[in-house]
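Internal tracking record. Fields below are filled automatically when a chain is submitted to the structure queue. Please do not edit lines marked as system-generated. If the sequence contains nonstandard residues, flag them in the REMARKS field before resubmitting.
Queue: standard
Priority: normal
Entity type: single polypeptide chain
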Amino acid sequence: MRAYLSVFKLRLIHGMQYRVAAYAGIATQFFWGFMIIMVFEAFYSSSGATQPMTLSQLVTYVWLQQSFLYFIMMWYRDHSLFDLITQGNIAYELCRPLNLLFFMVCQTDCWSSRRSYSTVSTYISCVIFST
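SYSTEM-GENERATED OUTPUT FOLLOWS
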């Protein structure tokens, strides 16, 4: 019984580390979202010129950007692409008879679909918070 309890305890601690990291990521997204909005609000209030977007449209855009950041930042999603470029192996990939962009997008989307839970939870929390 003692072994089962210790395994349960280790798995609980291991799972809580990832949960805390997810909460920290959500807090970071909110922090930077508020910072960007405050900077743009200062620009909008100090300028007399007409802006291309209203402030409410800009706030919506910033929250959408923050909630979908994980989907649009390709540099963080797949390190193998950087390895291909820095090691010169991208030439081998370019010789393949397929669309390299579509291949890389499918490859990174497969990898990111496994981690989409945290992104979806961030998106839902941003939507709930912004309404």
